[in-house]
């Protein structure tokens, strides 16, 4: 038999260790438990009786036995004893001690399944008793058993999933009032709004419940649920509802007829979003997205608005006395700003035209040519101080309220035509048209501020009367004989419109924009990657304006 000689340091002395190689018994001896090996204590000497520390993988029998002891202690209420069988007794004791109380479990039965290696499945069956309500609950989970590195003893690996398979760090199981009370949302005339009838409002209705459920007079569900930790990004998760809540009625500013018309209009496109407003008050009348499920681009999108931004730019130029509707204001084929050469669509130009003609034709360089005469923050101030863009809107639901950052050189020039860093959505673009129609900014909202005492945003500066009058004439000209004429054809009343097409890097076709008003109704729509605003987004807005 061949022998192998190794040297090792034991207790500060050099010891000679000889191991059999060949047909001898495995390390640890034939009397060990299955799967175990043993090592001497660090200060042990050959021949003494120092305790041996088991090493190596656990057997299924060890895992099963450890799990049985742990579950038995837990079920009997011996939380400290159960926690002592884990690798983190302090955390386990805290979690197990609060488990029954927080979940309101009156009875608890834990039934282990057959171990598979170091993993042991088990079923938790309990009876919930909460304020006169009783309900059984049962679910399965599992635990893992591992050998303690210091003692060699099997220990349950402590994780939140020992209590429930969906628990994460900081989560706890609770029984009680769950979430905000349900609401019965109704439109401005008292007609109920449901996600079944209006799928595109599903996210809006959920946001309204979260914010106003406790103010609408309802009572929340009583449920068994997972309460997420303080820093969790996920919402609480309901596992079982014991008693349904009672909804309170929440009146909104929406108009169910216009809402249905807006939904039908956006469905005519593969992707589109639209918003309708009441210019005289700022009330939101309709919110629609296609597809109905997914991100709410209509009120939370952040997109370059293209030439619809020329409403703000025109107001700024008029305010500064830099132009007037009938003033000569040519639109050159090319303009260079900050080293960038800008050209009009198809290299067109209006050599001897007026500002009104350039606005109605949406000729870019009529606006970009003014960049060198402007301060970097002029457009930002006009957008914020007159049109309310970028203020903190208190609409009643989550919204992105637009951004017109201070930029310089070519980027500032691009901002004048709704490119550069300018970002909007149908809500903010509809508000531009509504501000022109109403002669001043009225912050959009979907729930009356009197319900929760919130303060609506106010524009720091009123629009100059002459500017308001000139803007209306410019938008009317655009609606009757400019780029918006086709979409607005045949519509009577006090009308005005503006088209837009926003270029997007890596996108073959631009995003199409259109905004317009007809009497006390304003609307805006975006149809991504579709082309010109008048022919693609225009029909969506037209359908909404015709519905009232």
Which outline best applies? elongated
- Our estimate of the beta-strand percent is 15-25%
CA-to-CA gap between the ends? 101 Å
Determine the mean pLDDT.
91
Description of the structure:
The protein is α+β, with helices and mostly antiparallel strands. It has helices at about 60-75, 80-85, 90-105, 200-210, 255-265, 295-300, 310-320, 355-360, 365-370, 380-385, 410-415, 425-440, 465-480, 485-490, 535, 540-545; strands spanning about 5-10, 15-20, 35-40, 50-55, 105-110, 120-130, 135-145, 155, 170-180, 185, 220-225, 235-245, 250, 270-280, 285-290, 335, 340-345, 495-500, 510-520, 520-525. The strands form seven sheets. A five-stranded antiparallel beta sheet has the order 15-14-20-19-18, sandwiched between helices. A four-stranded antiparallel beta sheet has the order 5-6-7-8, covered by helices on one side. A three-stranded antiparallel beta sheet has the order 9-11-12. Strand 18 (about 495-500) and strand 19 form a beta hairpin. The radius of gyration is 35 Å and the shape is elongated. The N and C termini lie far apart (about 100 Å).
Write a concise keyword list for the protein shown above.
single chain, 548 residues, alpha+beta, 4-stranded antiparallel sheet, 16 helices, 20 strands, 27% helix, elongated, disordered N terminus
Summarize the structure.
By secondary structure, the chain is of the alpha+beta class. The chain has 16 helices and 20 strands.
